[in-house]
Amino acid sequence: MTSTSNLILRFAEPADCGVLFDLIQQLAEYEKLSHAVTGNVQALKEHLFGSRPYVEAILVEDAGQAVGFALFFYNYSTFLTKPGIYLEDLFVIPECRRRGVGKALLTKLAQIAVERDCGRLEWSVLDWNEPAKAFYRSMGADILDDWRICRVTEEALAQLANQV
Q1: Which residue, among 105, 92, 82, has the nearest Cα to 11 in the 3D structure?
Q2: Model's pTM, two decimal places?
Q3: Which terminal CB of the chain, N or C, has fewer other CB atoms within 10 Å?
Q4: How does pLDDT run across 103-149, given as a tens digit for each residue?
């Protein structure tokens, strides 16, 4: 049984990329989006640790085994004129849920945001994921009903980029 006192939360290192990518695939499977995973370990490693890092990751270990992660990057609030942290993914393996792992991850991210003088910490949640929404609310998060995510990908992104 996982106890939060046994957890090790640490920034991911280059050698962790294979384990981290495996956790990403488990997240995609949970979200019924396995078909959407087109990336690979090498690209993840480059984006975490390359010459121009785009993201950061926190890995959670229990008894030497990875049991969860959070992957995040900066965004910016023009109204606050402060950076923020955008949590792209938070995942805890099913057998470790409801044991404080997710809470430990969010707490760590909040600490990072405060240490880095960020104005906010934000993320998205799938509308059908009621357990996650309840958890996030219990941690003090507001779920913004009046905002929607806009996304342009792949072919549509290329078409948009080529408009005159």
Answers
A1: 105
A2: 0.92
A3: C
A4: 999 999 999 999 999 999 999 999 999 999 999 999 999 999 899 89
Q: Which of 62, 162, 74, 146 is nearest to 102 (CA)?
A: 62
Average pLDDT value for residue range 38-62: 98
First to last CA, the chain: 58
- 84 CB contacts (<8 Å, ≥6 apart)? 74, 75, 76, 77, 113, 118, 119, 120, 121, 122
76 is catalytic: no
One-letter amino acid identity for 121?
Answer: L
Phi, psi of 53 (to 5 degrees): -65, 135
Catalytic residue among 30, 54, 76, 136: 136
Specify the amino acid at residue 23: L
What sign does the CA torsion over 61, 66, 68, 70 have?
positive
